[in-house]
Amino acid sequence: MNGRAFLKRVVDVVGSAAAIVAFAPVLGIVGVLVARDIGRPIFFRQRRPGRGGGSFTMIKFRTMREPVAGEARFLSDADRLTPLGAFLRKSSLDELPELLNVLRGEMSLVGPRPLLESYLSKYTPEQARRHEVRPGITGWAQVNGRQNIPFSKRLQLDVWYVEHQSLWLDLRILLTTIRIAVFGDGVESGQALTDVDDLGFFTNEEKNAQSG
């Protein structure tokens, strides 16, 4: 591990630990609200590829109800996204449990967002470079359009981050993320993922696995 990578890991450990302590009351309140309004389990867990393509279990708060009888799970998020879930997504509070992933070394505070494992075989060699670093709670793509940009652009931005990563860039991304979380910029609640999948990555089966 070089000096920059070591310092980034130190920032991740200190930052995630401090954030878990600072947001402990918020985590508790959100957990209670999710259990009451959406149901148990309160967490959405899914295997995602990390650095080097290795697998880990990402943790988020649930934002969607279970499908009712006769309702296909792979329909647009708008069909099952609850009002509480929409608020959690807009405010990014649903991402707070990922601080545990950061503390465990599976994620970083800043890096490319972890996508589905099924995408690994679909990336070009250039796109696959996004896995040269740990995935992040937030990243360069999230502060440059978030959900309003197509997959192809997101992957380009991820690779740009890999090539230009620095602690100063991470600080810029974190500060911008706070502003975006406050104002909800770039969040499209109930957006169908096929609307932004210009690479043909997403099948109904994968959409079923994505929902949470």
Give a written overview of the molecule.
The chain has about 210 residues and is mainly α. It has one domain (about 5-210). It has seven helices and four strands. The protein has helices at about 5-20, 25-35, 85-90, 100-105, 150-165, 165-185, 205-210, and strands spanning about 45-50, 55-60, 110, 135-140. Strands 1-2 form a two-stranded antiparallel ribbon. Strand 1 and strand 2 (about 55-60) form a beta hairpin. Helix 1 crosses helix 2 (about 25-35). The radius of gyration is 17 Å and the shape is globular. The termini are far apart.
Gap between N and C termini: 35 Å
Structural class of the secondary elements?
mainly alpha
For the biggest sheet, the summary is: 2 strands, antiparallel
Which band does the percent of strand residues land in? 5-15%
- Count of folded domains: 1
Q: Which range best describes the helical content: under 10%, 10-25%, 25-40%, 40-55%, 55-70% or over 70%?
A: 40-55%
Radius of gyration: 17 Å
User: What is the average of the pLDDT values?
Assistant: 85
The arrangement of helices and strands along the chain is HHEEHHEEHHH
Low-confidence stretches: 204-211
The spatial strand order of the largest sheet comes to 1-2
Assembly state here?
single chain
Shape: globular
User: What's the total count of β strands?
Assistant: 4
What is the count of helical runs? 7
